[in-house]
Amino acid sequence: SDDVIIGEWAIAFGNPFGLFDMNAKPTVTVGVVSNKDVDFLHQDQPYNRVYKGMIQTDAAISSGNSGGPLINSLGEVIGMNTVIYSTSQGRQGAGSIGIGFSVPINRVKTIIDRIKKDKQINRDFYTGMEVREMDAQLARYIGSDKKDGVVVYGFQRESPAEQAGLKLGDIILEVDGYKVNRLDDYFIMVSDGEVGQKVTFKLLRDGKELTRTLELKPTPKRR
């Protein structure tokens, strides 16, 4: 999937609306790779589910196709069909409007290998800080002329954020080299992490750029 080219043929196999259960044959639809390396957040549950580096295709993917393969013209699996955009939602699920997304197969293989080895991927972590998207009022409050970005707005004492040396008013410019211009950018990068992972933040503080490394630690249990 690292070699996918925008515009190449894409073929989706699946089981839309349970048709496979009726005739024992999967449904096949054909389209092209519309885009790649697409990052976005779940629309209905913002910031709870992250889709990163996705392959976009106009091969029709409807409810029931999730988990089916997306293959190229050579019959090689390039992705796993996962999610679609739809303008409507019926009792049997959403219908395709030609905007579907697949998890790249190399990412799938990496996750499978991790689960085989460690039995789980623990994403129950916390940073201990609150962030807010920059606006004119916030820019005036922290004395910045920067018009976009994400600002550290609050954090918990003795949290990973405090231990890493982040401070209130820090403007987050990058997370692990990924530019942060809005909240979605921040959550896409951070929410894809796991417990024990170290995340590098490039910050703007008092007009100077600096870096801080934060370790994602397990979410404290409530007493």
Task: Give the biggest beta sheet.
Answer: 6 strands, antiparallel, barrel
Would you identify the regions where 5 or more consecutive residues have pLDDT less than 50?
none
Q: How far do the termini sit from each other?
A: 45 Å
**What number is the mean pLDDT?**
86
Order of adjacent strands in the largest pleated sheet: 1-2-3-6-5-4
Helix content: 10-25%
Secondary-structure element pattern, one letter each? EHEEEEEHEEHEHEEHEEE
- How many strands appear in the DSSP assignment? 14
Approximate shape = elongated
What integer value in Å does the Rg equal?
A: 21 Å
Helix and strand content put the structural class at alpha+beta
Provide a count of the helices: 5
Task: Quote the beta fraction.
Answer: 35-45%
How are the elements arranged and paired?
Layout: E1 9-14, H1 19-23, E2 27-41, E3 50-57, E4 69-71, E5 77-84, E6 100-104, H2 105-118, E7 125-126, E8 129-133, H3 136-142, E9 150-155, H4 160-164, E10 171-175, E11 178-179, H5 183-190, E12 198-205, E13 208-215, E14 217-218
Structure description:
About 15% of the residues lie in helices and about 35% in strands. It is α+β, with helices and mostly antiparallel strands and about 220 residues long. The strands form 3 sheets. A 6-stranded antiparallel beta barrel has the order 1-2-3-6-5-4. Strand 12 and strand 13 form a beta hairpin.
Question: What's the quick description here?
Answer:
This protein has 223 residues and is of the alpha+beta class. The protein contains five helices and 14 strands.
